[in-house]
Amino acid sequence: MNIKSYLIKLFCFTYTISFHQNLYCEDSIFSLEKKIKSLPEKQQSLYKDISSQLRCPTCTGLSVLESDALFSLQIRRKVIEEINKQKNQTQVLNFFTERYGPWILREPPKKGLHLFAWILPLTILVYGVFFLLYKLKGKQNSVKEISTQRENKLILDEMNKKLEELRLTRTKEGDLNCS
After folding, report:
1. 94, 25, 87: which is closest to 53 by C-alpha?
2. Are 133 and 176 in the same domain?
3. Which domain holds residue 173?
4. What's the total number of domains in the chain?
5. Residue 139: pLDDT band by 50, 70, 90 thresholds?
């Protein structure tokens, strides 16, 4: 047996052993799923609600419930522990907020400085709508002014033509009277 095949077999063997150890160790996803299934249905629902509201610290944009990162598994395990201590959703979320800060929550709380994060987009949207309406109304007024100016010019041109015609007829009448 050559060294290359020996190394491949050694790698496959160690990988298989490490994989099986991870499946059945305390921190594995399978042991966590087993704990979740052993919970009553009401607590399972509470677990899902809480875990979906917590942000995965290592993944971008995923909740703890959606992530399989080791840190997320530890947080999920802690959620189960807190639920088993008969804590409600608010108490568990407060525990994680005190421990990791408000960034652990996927939605910022709607109080204090975080209220600004909820109000600012709405305020910008309202001001944007008013700004657009103001600009559109201004354009309509300028279009009306332009059309009014054109109408006034047409009327003025028509009046000038009639005035010129009157002058011509008077001068012709005056010429006839003089002769």
Report:
1. 94
2. yes
3. 114-179
4. 2
5. low
d(CA 45, CA 29): 18
Work out the angle at residue 6's Cα, subtended by the Cα atoms of residues 4 and 10, and round it to the nearest 5 degrees. Answer: 120
- Domain shared by 96 and 166, yes or no: no
Q: Which of 40, 18, 22 is nearest to 31 (CA)?
A: 22
Q: Please report which residue ranges of 85-113 form alpha helices under DSSP H.
A: 89-100
124 and 78, same domain (yes or no): no
Regarding pTM above 0.70, the answer is no
Compute the half-sphere exposure of residue 161: CA atoms within 13 Å on the CB side of its CA: 6
Q: Judge if 102 and 125 occupy the same domain.
A: no
Which tokens in the block code for residue 25?
Answer: 């160790």
Greater confidence (85 vs 28) lies with 85
